[in-house]
TrEMBL record:
Swiss-Prot/TrEMBL keywords: Metal-binding, Oxidoreductase
Name the UniProt record assigns to this protein: Multicopper oxidase CueO
CDD domains, per database record: CuRO_2_BOD_CotA_like
Molecular function as annotated in GO: copper ion binding; oxidoreductase activity
Residue ranges occupied by any Plastocyanin-like domain in the UniProt entry: 77-137, 170-211, 408-515
Subunit-level organization: Monomer.
Pfam families for this protein: Cu-oxidase_2, Cu-oxidase_3
Organism field: Planobispora rosea
Entry EC no(s): 1.16.3.4
Keyword Metal-binding attached: yes
Record field: catalytic activity: 4 Cu(+) + O2 + 4 H(+) = 4 Cu(2+) + 2 H2O
InterPro entries reported in the protein's UniProt record: Cu-oxidase-like_N, Cu-oxidase_C, Cu-oxidase_fam, Cu_oxidase_Cu_BS, Cupredoxin, TAT_signal
Length: 516
């Protein structure tokens, strides 16, 4: 039986013993100290010189008529590594996809047409979205003329899988009844999210509102979304990924040791390798997104500079928080203001990742090009965010993220269970708040669909400075206990929570919950 499930088991099996010990995942000693959250896949082509490619800013999506958009998921050749074409799978054939720039409460319908050789499911990360538009992993769009049959024996860990198939295209409805925030959309197909996002299926959706607009924060050209992710490349320029699926294979033969998660040795910002941006000597609002499959970043500015955080995953903080470094797990967003007027014209300010090694230590560079007028400011009061109140919780639930079943049958699980669609681990009531405690055996960035939350405590102590504000994704480190207060608002129905390390997610580290 050469089904995907068997290959997947082989994939896990390879890691049952020595592989894990070597990478530090097997023993608690390694886990407690390690900051790394995946295994680096190295590129087969010569890497470009950093800070030579200008930073691209993704195009803004244009409606076909008010409130209605259409995007086509298709393959396209783009130039990521200078002089070498790379085939991406992108929304409108671009990577990142177009940025949707939308207003709070403006109901938006996005028709997604799939022209790719694989099924897709599009999820708006951070969206308060009705369940049937949330991008459930078995709710698939299949290109016209392409059949869909799960391989025999595949998906054994979620049988019978309740597939819903849309031929050619489908509409996703986004009411956007939520605060201004930096959201992003990406593929969410069952078992294949990691390789499909790796190939380019991700983009920004910005929600704006009057409260955020009224603040004197940097605007226009000085308000820039930055999608940070890592990739590796084959010699011919194609993306390198250790996929076990023949239809997704970039090149065979590199499929072991990646159960922890796949990291690349090339850091991309908005799809460009280690780009450079000429900036005014002024304040900029940078909307940082870690869109990597598995890589964590600890961002810093050299030779110096601070990040003044004004927003988190789910919009404005109550007050700004200054950071020398920002640690970002996959899926997290940090909305920061950086003031380049502190540097002389001609200065070069490099954004680095102090958790990275070799070429992956650099992220991008800002070149202070000119003096300029700057009317912006960061007010001491940004928004009303009530501090979390533990007594508001009507229930407490514990979710343990852990690898189970060493060897052949292993997978990443939540509370000991590999994902089964339709099996809810929790039934919170609409309009209530619950205390959700997350813990686990490795780096597991925990993401909850629909519901936003505030971090109450880490290991019984106060939350970290970077935990401030409303979030939808939280960095849970090995053996850490993170308490969050989750607010269930918006819609009743079936949603999910999962680890946002996309390889863990594909290896079953997901769970449904149902808002009742
Ligand atoms: Cu960004 Cu369910 O994912
Ligand atoms: Cu999400
Ligand atoms: Cu995980």
């Amino acid at each position: 039986m050469i089904s995907r499930a068997v290959s997947r088991r082989g994939f896990l099996g390879l890691l049952g013993g020595a592989g894990l010990a070597v990478t530090g995942c097997g023993g608690p000693g390694g886990l407690l100290t390690a900051e790394t959250s995946g295994e680096v896949l190295t590129s087969a082509l010569p890497l470009p010189r950093p800070f030579t490619v200008p930073l691209p800013v993704p195009a803004t999506a244009r409606p076909v008529r008010p409130g209605h958009y259409e995007v086509v998921q298709r393959a396209a050749k783009v130039e990521i590594i200078p002089g070498t074409p790379t085939e991406v799978w992108g929304y409108d054939g671009t990577f990142p996809g177009p940025t949707f720039d939308l207003r709070r409460g403006s109901r938006t319908v996005v028709r997604v047409r799939n022209e790719l050789p694989v099924p897709t499911s599009t999820h708006l990360h951070g969206g308060v979205t009705p369940p049937d538009s949330d991008g459930y992993p078995t709710d698939l769009v299949v290109a016209r003329g392409r059949g869909f049959r799960p391989a025999p024996g595949a998906h054994a860990h979620h049988d019978p899988a309740p597939w819903t198939l849309h031929a050619g295209a489908r509409d996703y409805v986004y009411p956007l009844e939520q605060r201004a925030a930096t959201l992003w959309y990406h593929d969410h197909r069952m078992d294949f999210t990691a390789p499909q996002v790796w190939r380019g299926l991700a983009g920004f959706l910005l929600v704006r509102d009057d409260e955020d607009d009224a603040l004197p924060l940097p605007k226009g050209e000085r308000d820039i979304p930055l999608m940070i992710c890592d990739r590796a490349f084959e010699e011919d320029g194609s993306f390198r990924y250790p996929s076990v699926d023949p239809s997704l294979l970039v090149k065979p033969g590199v499929e072991d040791a990646y159960m922890e998660g796949v990291e690349g040795d090339v850091i991309l910002v908005n799809g460009a390798p280690w780009p450079v941006l000429d900036v005014d000597a002024a304040r900029y609002r940078l909307r940082l997104l870690n869109a990597s499959n598995a890589r964590r970043y600890r961002l810093a500015l050299t030779p110096g500079g601070r990040f003044v955080q004004v927003g988190s995953d789910q919009g404005l903080l109550a007050a700004p928080v200054a950071h020398d470094t920002i640690t970002m797990a996959p899926g997290e967003r940090f909305d920061v203001v950086v003031d380049f007027s502190a540097h002389p014209v001609g200065a070069e300010v490099t954004l680095v990742n102090t958790l990275g090694t070799g070429p992956a230590r650099d992220v991008m560079r800002f070149r202070v090009a000119r003096r300029a007028r700057d009317d912006s400011a960061v007010p001491q009061r940004l928004s009303r965010v009530e501090p979390p109140d533990r007594s508001a919780a009507v229930a407490t639930r514990v979710f343990d993220f852990r690898r189970t079943g060493q060897g052949g049958g292993g997978s990443w699980t939540i509370n000991g269970r590999p994902y089964r669609p339709g099996d809810s681990l929790a039934r919170p009531r609409l309009g209530t708040t619950e205390l959700w405690r997350f813990t686990g055996d490795f780096h597991h960035p925990v993401h909850v669909h629909l519901a936003r939350f505030q971090v109450l405590a880490r290991n019984g102590g106060p939350p970290a400075p970077a935990d401030a504000g409303w979030k939808d994704t939280v960095d849970v480190r090995p053996y850490e206990v993170v308490d969050t207060l989750v607010r269930f608002e918006g819609y009743r129905g079936r949603y999910m929570m999962h680890c946002h390390n996309l390889e863990h997610e594909d290896m079953a580290m997901m769970a449904d919950f149902e808002v009742v």
